[in-house]
């Protein structure tokens, strides 16, 4: 059974345009000029129960607008949409009990109260019995490595502790569908890793479906086997992150630490040299020739260390988005 189904989903806004200055203000008052802005343009996709899907796009691409339609915060302008068997914009109680939305730049915890007080309020809103709520809070707090922090006013928590408490509040009612918008925004490296580990464990243990947007590609590569790419309101890729990487990068990076110094000319024919400083060498090698080229390198040179990997995914996707922008402007590739 598909848990999220979107067909030709669209959202447009009518805005009024105002020219600067007093004359522009008078014209705006007496005879307004309107135009329609398309935020999401007929996108279609489906997500199965238990999937962990990344939703990527540059700023203004339509990601947050799509999430707001999926959670019922705004009504679509067109198309069909079902989440967990419901039409989100109807905001039915049964639907709201099955979903949650976490936004990294928004908070639901009361600033001056201990986080535990806000959690108890949330439990009452969702009709959880006190004993069941206490058990649920204890289980999630253990998974999130939260303890005494829940007794402190929210304003005294670090950003990482506050984000984990926000996640706890969002998951208190055991939702089956999670919409996460930049959940690691502003967190340091250690806090990001802990939040990622928690989300992966939660998805694995509960079978919850997760749709994640993030500008941190570390979140996407660590959590999302599948990605949706959106640009200027249009969905243009839906599939495996690994296959996307292979399509965007027909070559793999080979990093070598050599025992001896060699001129760059010595590596002609092994691949495209990206970097060569002293004993360190980085080559781009076609995927279908990787085994042959690496074996030849090991046979001809004394190699102290070797590493094979893909170019950084954030660089690849950045190039993809820039190429679409250039195509939209009509620039030559």
Topology:
Blueprint: E1 4-17, H1 21-30, E2 33-47, E3 52-56, H2 63-70, E4 78-83, H3 93-96, E5 99-103, H4 115-125, H5 130-143, H6 159-171, E6 177-181, H7 189-206, E7 209-213, H8 217-223, E8 226-231, E9 234-240, H9 241-248, E10 251-258, E11 272-277, E12 280-286, H10 290-300, E13 303-309, H11 313-329
Parallel strand pairs: 3-7, 3-8, 5-6, 6-7
Antiparallel strand pairs: 1-2, 1-4, 8-9, 10-12, 10-13, 11-12
Helix pairs in contact: 4-5
* SSE ordering: EHEEHEHEHHHEHEHEEHEEEHEH
- Total helices: the number is 11
When the domains are counted, the total is: 2
Largest beta-sheet details? 6 strands, mixed
Shape: globular
- Output the CATH homologous superfamily of the largest domain: P-loop containing nucleotide triphosphate hydrolases
- How much of the polypeptide forms β-strand, as a percent range? 25-35%
- Detail the poorly predicted runs: none
Q: State the CATH topology of the largest domain.
A: Rossmann fold
CATH architecture annotation name of the largest domain: 3-Layer(aba) Sandwich
Helix content: 25-40%
CATH class category name of the largest domain: Alpha Beta
SS-based structural class?
alpha/beta
Radius of gyration: 25 Å
Keywords for this entry:
11 helices, alpha/beta, Alpha-Beta Plaits, Rossmann fold, 333 residues, 2 domains, 36% helix, four-stranded antiparallel β-sheet, six-stranded mixed β-sheet
């Amino acid at each position: 059974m598909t848990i999220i189904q979107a067909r030709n989903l669209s959202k447009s806004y009518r805005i009024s345009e105002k020219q600067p200055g007093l004359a522009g203000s008078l014209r705006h008052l007496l005879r307004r000029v309107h135009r329609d802005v398309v935020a999401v343009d007929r996108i279609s996709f489906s997500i199965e129960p238990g999937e962990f899907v990344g939703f990527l796009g540059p700023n203004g691409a339509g990601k947050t607008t799509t999430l707001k339609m999926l959670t019922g915060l705004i009504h679509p302008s067109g198309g069909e949409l079902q989440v967990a068997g419901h039409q989100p914009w109807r905001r039915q109680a049964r639907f709201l009990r099955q979903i949650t939305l976490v936004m990294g730049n928004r908070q639901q915890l009361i600033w001056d109260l201990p986080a535990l007080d806000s959690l108890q309020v949330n439990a009452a809103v969702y009709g959880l019995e006190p004993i069941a709520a206490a058990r649920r809070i204890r289980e999630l707090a253990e998974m999130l490595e939260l303890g005494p922090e829940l007794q402190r006013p929210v304003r005294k928590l670090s950003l990482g502790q506050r984000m984990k408490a926000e996640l706890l509040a969002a998951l208190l009612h055991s939702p089956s569908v999670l919409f996460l918008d930049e959940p690691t925004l502003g967190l340091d490296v250690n806090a990001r890793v802990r939040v990622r580990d928690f989300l992966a464990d939660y998805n694995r243990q509960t079978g919850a479906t997760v749709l994640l947007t993030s500008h941190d590609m570390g979140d996407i590569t660590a959590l999302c086997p599948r990605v949706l790419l959106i640009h200027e309101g249009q969905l243009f890729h839906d599939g495996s992150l690994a296959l996307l990487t292979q399509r965007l990068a027909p070559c793999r990076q080979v990093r070598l630490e050599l025992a001896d110094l060699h001129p760059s000319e010595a590596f002609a024919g092994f691949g495209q040299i990206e970097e060569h400083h002293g004993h360190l060498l980085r080559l781009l090698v076609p995927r279908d020739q990787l085994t042959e080229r690496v074996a030849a390198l090991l046979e001809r040179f004394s190699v102290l260390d070797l590493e094979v990997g893909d170019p950084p995914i954030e660089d690849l996707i950045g190039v993809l988005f820039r190429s679409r922008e250039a195509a939209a402007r009509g620039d030559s590739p």
